[in-house]
Design brief:
- It is a single chain.
- The chain has a five-stranded mixed sheet with strand order 3-2-1-4-5.
- Strand 1 (about 65-70) and strand 2 (about 75) form a beta hairpin.
- The protein has four helices and five strands.
- It has a domain at about 60-135: Nucleotidyltransferase, domain 5 (2-Layer Sandwich).
- It has about 140 residues and is of the alpha/beta class.
- The relative contact order is 0.11.
């Protein structure tokens, strides 16, 4: 079965067939006509507005608390020697503050982890949410 190209030379046609392009455009037009009404929201929701002024009114950050632990179990609150009972009472009073300060636990190189773990558990039991460790950077 042979198709005629419309010219006498018998070569291929150099013109673009526009019919498939028009078909695709009509299908897209129908799709957009159907989906556009669906994109409008029927339920009106009042969205909250951002207020950047509240950020500036915040209190300055609270300095962290450093609890140092030595190998023999002696404790230091910001380089001041304390006992375990005093540590518990100070931690419970600091846990009531807003914003709550961070507790940094620093142990000697020779301190056993069991002793450091007791301090961390005490801080968490008193209600401190932010408990971290301080270590020296390896060279």
């Amino acid at each position: 079965m042979a198709f005629s190209t419309g010219n006498e030379s018998g070569g291929p046609m150099a013109e673009i067939n526009v019919t498939p392009l028009v078909d695709v455009m009509l299908v897209l037009l129908i799709i957009f006509m159907i989906t556009t009404p669906l994109m409008s929201h029927k339920v009106q929701v009042k969205l909250p507005e951002a207020n950047l002024e509240r950020k500036d009114e915040k209190a300055p950050p609270v300095p962290p608390i450093t609890v140092a632990v030595q190998e023999d179990g002696s404790l230091f609150w910001n380089d001041e020697p304390i006992t375990k009972n005093v540590l518990e009472s100070r931690l419970s009073s600091e846990a009531q503050k807003t914003p709550q300060p961070q507790v940094n636990v620093r142990g000697d190189r020779t301190t056993k982890y069991r002793i450091v773990n007791e301090v961390v558990k005490t801080a968490q039991a008193q209600g401190m949410r932010k408990v971290g460790f301080v270590a020296t950077k390896e060279r």
